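Can't paste images in this forum, so I'm doing it all in text. The chain is below; anyone willing to post the predicted structure tokens underneath?
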Amino acid sequence: MRELEHRFKETVKTLPHYPETGEEVSETLNWLKKCEQNIEIKIEKTTFPELRQWNLADDESDIKHESGKFFSIEAVRVSSKIGNQKLTWDQPIINQPEVGILGYLAKRVGDKIYFLVQAKVEPGNPKLAQISPTVQATKSNYTQVHGGTIPPYLDYFTSATIDKIQVDTLQSEQGKKFFRKKNRNIVVWVDNKLEDQENFRWVSYDALKQLMKSDLVVNMDSRTVFACFAASISNNSENESNTSTTEDWIDSYRKSIEYQVQKIALSDCKDWKLSDQSFRHINRAEFSVTPIAVKIESREVKYWDQPILEHHNCGVIGLIVKKKTNSLHFLVRLYAEPGIENYIAIGPTFQSETKENTSEYYQWEIVEELKLSASNSRITHSSFQSEEGGRFLNFISNYLIIEANNEIPDLSSDKFRWMNRKELDEALVAGLLNIEIRNLLAIYP
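Text version of the structure:
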């Protein structure tokens, strides 16, 4: 196991830090850097008692905004029996029941597609300014619960007619951290010239695809909407697919396991400790709840404070790909997660918030089981990407694409399956894929 991980790490060192860049990619990176330099940013850790408009319940059951909107920090107790493995754990979780809008405005210029993107600063991102969709807003944001300004270009999405919409689908967020959270992923075509706004720029499909392969340049919300768009325009006529068969596979797996999620009070979380500075596990160090104070001049609201989920390790997310019957196939896996509706979603071959966390059953054992070696596989992509910077602090994962040849075992089981791109695209639009694999599909190829 360790030898395999070491080989992967050594291979990653030989990969270029940035992809080959054309003039547009270079110009966009320069634009992003200038935008960040022109934005006044200040983010500080604070204490729970100092949080304005956020309250810890008298019984310490949750942390909520005084408006009752935005989100709350709650807790769940999870009991699972998957195969012979029984696990029970308590954890905090974000409850944000409103559906937000993540959307691109798109246009055609000749034979090229362009997206209107913005340079957006989120308090949790290690590289603060990243390429974001045209609109990235919670319902509380765009209905001005906070008293701020309305996000630019919002009306193009709220009043879009069916003939202008390329894709419009509800998609889940991180199932271990959000409780049944979904966002509207939407792309709307525009024909007319738009009014210029500060920190917005048109970027071509090809350039945005290249930028996504760079470290910490394109944010998570851009990646998931891009993946939805790409799935909606894909032409995989050489592949066969059957969405009902995929749904049957998910239902069959769900019935084969035991999985229960019970809401509990924060104060009842076993092995978690609340202090003025944090809410953290007494032994594990994957993440904690941390209060922060934020000042960002470019945002709809310039000053605010909030609780945020702070991460203390780098995760790893990997997808194994191989050619099978003259087309690409992807080794995917079913994951049970407490925040996913009905608990089960299709994800990448492996995903873990830290390779050192042996309690997670989506680990590197799949790499060992497939007998991957230098002779039958190679890493074709490795990048570090941040997750949702509005709710997570320093949540970074190493995204890997591993191409294997037909010498590896043709692994199939109740939780693993080889799927072709058409099957994955249809499952994506149907909302069956988790955020981790959607982000990988945005990057690949």
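The radius of gyration is 21 Å. Residues 26 and 207 are 9 Å apart (CA to CA).
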